[in-house]
Design a protein that fits this description.
The protein is of the alpha+beta class. It has helices at 2-13, 22-32, 45-55; strands spanning 36-40, 61-65. 47% of the residues lie in helices and 14% in strands. The radius of gyration is 18 Å and the shape is elongated. The N and C termini lie far apart (53 Å). The model has no long low-confidence stretch (mean pLDDT 84).
C-alpha cells in the first residue's frame, strides 16, 4: 500500500515536457507546399506528423524523420 501511494504521489506531481507551435507550422507547410518531401529533425516528431496529416487530408506531403536520412 505504501509503495502504491508513493507511486501515485510521484505520478500526480510529474511534469511532462510541452511543445507548442507544431499545429501552425504544419498548417503553413500544407498551404504553401503543394506536394513533396519534408525532412524533419526535431523533438517529438510524431506530434508534427499528426498535425501535418490533419492539415493535408489528401496525403500529398511525405515526412522523413532524421532517423531515416543520412548526415555527414
Amino acid at each position: 500500500m505504501i509503495l502504491l501511494a508513493k507511486s501515485a504521489w510521484f505520478a500526480w506531481g510529474f511534469q511532462r515536457s510541452y511543445i507548442s507551435g507544431y499545429a501552425s507550422a504544419a498548417q503553413s507547410l500544407a498551404q504553401t507546399a503543394g506536394s513533396g518531401i519534408i525532412l524533419f529533425d526535431g523533438a517529438l516528431p510524431a506530434n508534427f506528423i499528426f498535425f501535418l496529416r490533419g492539415a493535408d487530408p489528401g496525403r500529398h506531403l511525405i515526412v522523413v524523420r532524421k532517423a531515416l536520412y543520412v548526415t555527414r
